[in-house]
């Protein structure tokens, strides 16, 4: 599942391959931007912001969000793609590389000067140069009644955490996902959020337990009905969200969390 660590790695590799190159092919496969053409423009760089990815090309930014299934791939010209062409939403070609965005949840082309209209609402980026733990703490505590998992997932509080990290953080801090964030040690939660996502930033396989063996990479996420890796109690599951349309799966150990 793409979260801030995944998007950071994709942006890093895309930037290594594309920065400074000239666009030789431009194909945006969404109706609103299908006629756009930045062929001949220079790619100034590719960066991540939370779970958003930004290709900065000439005077424009190609803004994408991976959502649940999206990914960006790099191929040498003429090489076969690993996913079907009908899943491609954006194809950016240079002399040396073909960058393909598959199943992207958001694809839009915006003037570079207006980039903040797409990502300006985000809180401090856990993996960004703007990371500010004090600001993240202030945002989380501004609505103390919000369930901890919901508050951690709100990208306006701190950018980069997805559902895997939110559930795992609640377990590691010993709090139920439904517990109001104001009843938790918010500074400790923020500090652990930073350490955990940073530890996974350069890993191909995410782990919150420190163990990369199958079935042992996470404490609770996706493990409903299985024994807790710490105490053996069966993991429970439920749903939480800001409203009915934003419900997300939650997992917890009824013994280790309260």
UniProtKB/TrEMBL annotation:
GO molecular-function term, one example from the UniProt record: zinc ion binding
Keywords: DNA damage, DNA repair, DNA-binding, Glycosidase, Hydrolase, Lyase, Metal-binding, Multifunctional enzyme, Zinc, Zinc-finger
PROSITE patterns noted in UniProt: FPG_CAT, ZF_FPG_2
Stored InterPro entries: FPG_cat, FPG_N, H2TH_FPG, Nei2_N, Ribosomal_uS13-like_H2TH, Znf_DNA_glyclase/AP_lyase
One Pfam family here: Fapy_DNA_glyco
CDD domains found in the cross-reference section: AcNei2_N (cd08971)
Top-rank EC class of the record's enzyme: lyase
Domain FPG-type: 219-258
GO biological process: base-excision repair
Zinc found in the keyword field: yes
EC id: 4.2.99.18
Domain Formamidopyrimidine-DNA glycosylase catalytic: 2-101
Superkingdom of the source species: Bacteria
Family: Belongs to the FPG family.
Protein's name according to its UniProt entry: DNA-(apurinic or apyrimidinic site) lyase
Organism, as annotated: Mycetocola zhujimingii
Organism taxonomic ancestry: Bacteria, Bacillati, Actinomycetota, Actinomycetes, Micrococcales
């Amino acid at each position: 599942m793409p979260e801030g660590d995944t998007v950071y790695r994709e942006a890093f590799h895309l930037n290594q391959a594309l920065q400074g190159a000239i666009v030789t092919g431009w194909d945006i496969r969404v109706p609103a931007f299908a006629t756009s053409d930045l062929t001949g423009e220079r790619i100034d760089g590719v960066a991540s912001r939370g779970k958003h990815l930004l290709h900065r090309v000439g005077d424009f930014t190609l803004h994408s969000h991976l959502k649940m299934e999206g990914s960006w791939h790099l191929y040498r010209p003429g090489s076969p793609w690993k996913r079907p062409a009908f899943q491609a939403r954006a194809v950016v070609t240079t002399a040396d590389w073909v960058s393909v965005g598959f199943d992207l949840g958001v694809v839009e082309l915006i003037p570079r000067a207006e980039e903040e209209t797409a990502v300006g609402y985000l809180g401090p980026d856990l993996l960004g140069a703007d990371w500010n733990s004090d600001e993240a703490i202030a945002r989380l505590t501004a609505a103390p009644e919000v369930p901890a998992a919901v508050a951690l997932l709100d990208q306006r509080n701190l950018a980069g955490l997805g559902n895997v990290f939110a559930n795992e953080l609640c377990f590691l801090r010993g709090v139920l996902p439904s517990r109001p964030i104001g009843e938790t040690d918010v500074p400790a939660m923020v500090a652990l959020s930073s350490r955990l996502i940073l530890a996974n930033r350069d890993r191909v396989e995410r782990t919150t337990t420190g163990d990369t063996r199958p079935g042992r990479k996470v404490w609770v996420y996706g493990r409903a009905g299985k024994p807790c890796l710490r105490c053996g109690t069966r993991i429970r599951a439920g749903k939480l969200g800001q409203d009915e349309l934003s419900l997300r799966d939650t997992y917890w150990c009824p013994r280790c969390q309260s």
